[in-house]
Amino acid sequence: MHSIFRKISLLFCVLQSISLALGTNFLNFSENANDLALGRHPAIGGSSVVNPSLIKQHHESPIFYINSGNWYGDISISGLNYVHKVGNYNNRLFLKQAEINDLEFRGSEPLDDPNAMFSAYGFQLGSGVSIKNDFGDFGVSISYLSIGIYDQNSKGFIIDLGYSKLLLNGWNMGLSVLNLGHITKLYQEVPKLPTLFLIGGSKSFKSFKISNKFYTTAEYSILDDIWKLKLGLDSGLEKIKILTGYSIDKHSAAFSFGGGISSGRFGVTYAIKFGSQKIGNPKVLSLSYLLP
Partner of 88 at 20 to 30 A CA spacing, among 38, 113, 154, 190? Predict the structure, then answer.
């Protein structure tokens, strides 16, 4: 009986640690290729995922995005985005998911086969809006959150806030606060939300016929008490773009790059990331379609 109780307790400890690693942190995964390559920047031209004030329908028609890839630890990630304009508001509807299906539970005894196989997932569904006025652009997004592992799950809601503004001489700025909200208890504890604060700037410039946008961002993780510096460069020539990014904090550094091409209503972008910790290379493929 003591052995059975020990195994059950150990299983739930394993479930809790993996769920906290995947279930909450998946909110900060780069879900699309542009974000993975550049590094998720809140300034104008950057990512509406980390700054809802950047939500904008850039064309006369709405645009639809499909994202798919892998994160560290062979975690599969996917997402859908639909950006359109409603009156004076720009709206983004989004779905994001991360999962891993081949987790093994093993006891202290060496065995050929695991004691159990289980999966873990994170799921987010929400909507964001932005509006422009004389003081700049403001945005907010609200989403439903669900995380789970084995037969345990937790649910809640997330709020993201953002602001951005055009400055002089091609400079722009943006700031945002991410992952505010509430989540229910998972097994015996309430998972902690990975709240982030981001502030950054961007600069547009031309080199010969190439249009460039340079990004710099300071990101602070309230949960981990860590600052991260991120740099990104988006270079484009007609319908081709090259994306590069670099990030560093007190524990690690990472370099990322990607490329994209558009033709008619279709666009495709691919990105890969290399880190100093050598625990894998995240990759994401993004497809876009400009609706009629």
Answer: 38
What pLDDT digit, counting tens, does each position of 152-170 carry? 889 999 999 999 999 988 8
CATH of the domain at 155: 2.40.160.40
Spacing of C-alpha 57 from chain mean position: 20
Among the listed residues 283, 204, 209, 208, the one whose alpha carbon sits nearest the alpha carbon of residue 239: 209
* Residues of the chain with confidence (pLDDT) below 50: 1-21, 106
How far apart, in Å, are the Cα atoms of 133 and each of 50, 136, 163, 171? 20, 6, 11, 18
Range of the domain at 107: 2-290
**What Å distances lie between residue 89 and 51, 55, 127, 166, 219, CA to CA?**
15, 9, 12, 18, 27
